[in-house]
Design a protein that fits this description.
The protein is globular, with a radius of gyration of 26 Å. Among the domains are: 154-289, Butyryl-CoA Dehydrogenase, subunit A, domain 2 (Beta Barrel), CATH 2.40.110; 446-645, Butyryl-CoA Dehydrogenase, subunit A, domain 3 (Up-down Bundle), CATH 1.20.140. A hairpin with a 2-residue loop joins strand 7 and strand 8 (234-235). By secondary structure, the protein is α+β, with helices and mostly antiparallel strands. The longest helix is centred in the last third of the chain and has 33 residues, at 549-581. It is 54% helix and 11% strand. It starts with a helix and ends with a helix.
Length: 661
């Protein structure tokens, strides 16, 4: 058993712990190895590098604006020399040839300064990833060797001031000039300027620019181009760059705005994996449908969403590790007149605040494992078919949304749980809050991403999926027989399964079965399928009443988002249950089983109003779930230190001397 004596000195069973319960004994190192999984060696490398650059946490507060940006750039380039940032690139260009390893490295990097994390993501994930995934051999040979080492710094210029999530409507134009065999890149107005672009304000020499391709006077949709934006450290001719200035956080990343005034680039600047333009000015693509071509192109960039999800979950781990260690040290009030003050985690409410968040973090960790594996299989060609890509895109979008929201909520709760000490910058919460807040909106606004998830559910992964906007989705669902949606739903079967799990058939007020994973899964599956059928009915009803598709969708949008949220929570629970069931019998299986039960029941408890409205819970059973959540928190409390230690966050990254000692 590996323990931290300081953290465990006061972690004996609390007064209200369930009696007769066999407490699991946790070997922290063994649990850490289980969590690190197949990429344990990669994660060790990143942890070693984090410790080497631990001073950056203080430098973020002490250095001036420009100096901190330069320091972050230096660290990123130096880390690139260790190989940790290039693991997803092909070996022939200096990479590691392992997409899954690159995601694991990025996730682990989130234990440290998040400006470093985002700078790595911009340089190697977005800029380098776009060249790798959208370009062909010429682009790979020309750029990737220097991208991988950090010698060539670049940026990913997609977002515009007037167009964020609606990428298809970007205003930047790339017109092909057949006479010179060049593309002419132009920013139409300030709404079309590239904005919030990481690396743009100071360090990028080259940008991957997304623009409307115009050939022979005809628009062919958004395509990507490699465009030099600096020459000798100064803006290139026709390029204007402006600093976005200070942000809420991540001030080690130089975000900027870019305008293009007739900037000419050669024909080879088009990243032409999915489309090309001949010297004579003939547009060619193996994908005829322009919408499908666009979504295929964007689908190759899904790695960013997977990375952000993993980074967010690990940022939440840092907050929880600090708050939990503090709760095991800090004493407050006497439990009785003749007793000493209790440590915070012995209080039922404090357990309620932290332990369900730890359970949810473990759940999202294992869900991220599933997503990372799917990404690796698709991008390595192991399971690269149309259906696998759709499933990956939907799962990545959903886990990104729930993972980043979880980070925001968790960091805030942990800050509050540490009282005034949590408000001091030295104790890390200030940086964690400020730097992670944008995770909910970059790589896609979370609500927009959940709409993408819902679209796939409502269309049953129809062949039209790639080419369907939200109005097309409305029309598609309307044309379905809604009864077919309901028939495909197994909701009624799930209801019977839930009842069968409980003694007494319809006697829903009994507490038996509350810790059965089949019961948990059945409840979440029922919620998802019931919501899905209801959303389909509402869409069809609106269209039957001759409503405009846009208006109908807007009226049902909250329902659509709820469907997607329910779907992703079900996926997360399934991943957790599968992980626990696959473990050999022993203390770790018991401990993770407790966490899995806590995640499931606290999820049901949080939405108990819906379950009661739809006849899935009586008042008595709802109260029983609340009691069981309290009971689970009491059971988990004695192993809380080991559970957060198993995340393997280097002590130097916790910092927080006032909180963790």
């Amino acid at each position: 058993m590996v323990t931290d004596n300081a953290d465990n000195a006061d972690k004996g069973d609390s007064a209200d712990s369930p009696s007769g319960y066999a407490q699991p004994v946790i070997d922290t190192q063994a649990l850490a190895e289980l969590l690190d999984g197949e990429y344990a060696e990669v994660r060790r490398l990143v942890r070693t590098n984090l410790v080497a650059y631990a001073d950056v946490l203080e430098e973020a507060e002490q250095l001036g604006f420009d100096a901190f940006r330069e320091r972050v750039r230096e660290i990123v380039v130096e880390m690139a020399a260790t190989g940790q940032t290039g693991m997803g690139f092909p070996k022939e260009y200096g990479g590691g040839g392992d997409v899954g390893a690159s995601i694991a490295a990025f996730e682990t990097l989130a234990f440290g300064d998040l400006s470093v994390l985002v700078k790595v993501g911009v340089q190697f994930g977005l800029f380098g990833g776009a060249i790798l995934q959208l370009g062909t051999e010429h682009h790979h040979k020309t750029y990737l060797p220097d991208v991988v080492t950090g010698k060539l710094m670049g940026c990913f210029a997609m977002t515009e001031t007037g167009h964020g999530s609606n990428v298809q409507a970007l205003g930047t134009v790339a017109r092909y000039d057949a006479g010179t065999q060049e593309f002419v890149i132009t920013t139409g107005d300030d709404q079309a300027r590239k904005d919030y672009i990481g690396n743009a304000a100071r360090h990028a020499e080259v940008a991957v620019v997304f623009a409307q391709l115009e050939v022979g006077g005809e628009r062919q949709g958004v395509h990507a181009f490699v465009v030099p934006i600096r020459v000798g450290g100064q803006p290139a001719p026709g390029v204007r760059i402006e600093d976005d200035g200070r942000k809420m956080g991540l001030n080690g990343v130089d975000n900027g705005r870019i305008w293009f005034d007739g900037v000419r680039v050669p024909r080879e600047a088009l990243l032409n994996r999915f489309a090309d333009v001949t010297a004579e000015g003939v547009y060619r693509s193996p994908i005829d449908n322009p919408n499908r071509r666009f979504f295929t192109m964007l689908g190759t960039l899904v790695q960013g969403r997977v990375s952000v999800a993993g980074g967010a979950v690990n940022a939440a781990k840092v907050a929880l590790a600090i708050a939990t260690k503090y709760a095991l040290r800090r004493r407050q009030f006497e439990a009785a007149s003749d007793s000493d003050e209790q440590v915070l985690l012995d209080y039922g409410m404090h357990r309620r605040r932290l332990l369900p968040l730890i359970a949810r973090t473990y759940a999202l960790h294992f869900a991220q494992d599933v997503t990372r594996t799917q990404l690796h299989e698709v991008f390595s060609g192991i399971a690269d078919d149309e259906q696998a890509r759709r499933e990956l895109e939907a799962r990545a979008a959903g886990i990104k949304a729930l993972g980043t929201w979880h980070a925001t909520r968790t960091i805030q709760e942990c800050r509050e749980a540490c009282g005034g000490a949590g408000y001091l910058a030295v104790n890390r919460f200030a940086a964690l809050k400020a730097d992670s807040d944008v995770f909910a909106t970059f790589e896609g606004d979370n609500h927009v991403l959940l709409q993408l998830v819902a679209k796939g559910l409502l269309t049953h992964h129809a062949s039209e999926f790639e080419s369907m906007d939200q109005l097309g989705m409305v029309r598609y669902v309307t044309n379905l027989a809604v009864e077919t949606v309901i028939e495909k739903s197994s909701a009624h079967k799930l209801l019977e399964r839930v009842r069968d799990l409980l003694p007494g058939g319809d006697e829903w007020d009994q507490e038996a079965g509350l810790l059965d994973s089949e019961y948990h899964l059945a409840m979440l599956r029922f919620r998802e399928e019931h919501m899905l059928a209801g959303a389909a009915r509402r869409l069809k009803r609106g269209m039957d009443q001759k409503g405009h598709p846009g208006v109908v969708f807007s009226q049902v949008q909250d329902h659509v988002i709820a469907v997607a949220h329910a779907h992703v929570e079900r996926l997360v629970l399934e991943a957790f249950v599968a992980k626990v069931q696959g473990l050999p019998d022993g203390d770790h299986k018991v401990a993770l089983g407790l966490l899995c039960d806590l995640f499931a029941l606290s999820t049901i408890e949080a939405d108990r109003a819906w379950f009661m409205e739809h006849g899935r819970l009586t008042v008595q059973r709802s109260k029983a779930i609340r009691r069981e959540v309290n009971d689970l928190c009491a059971k988990i409390r004695p192993i809380a230190a080991e559970l957060v230690d198993a995340w393997g966050i280097p002590r130097e990254m916790l910092r927080a001397p006032d909180l963790v000692g």
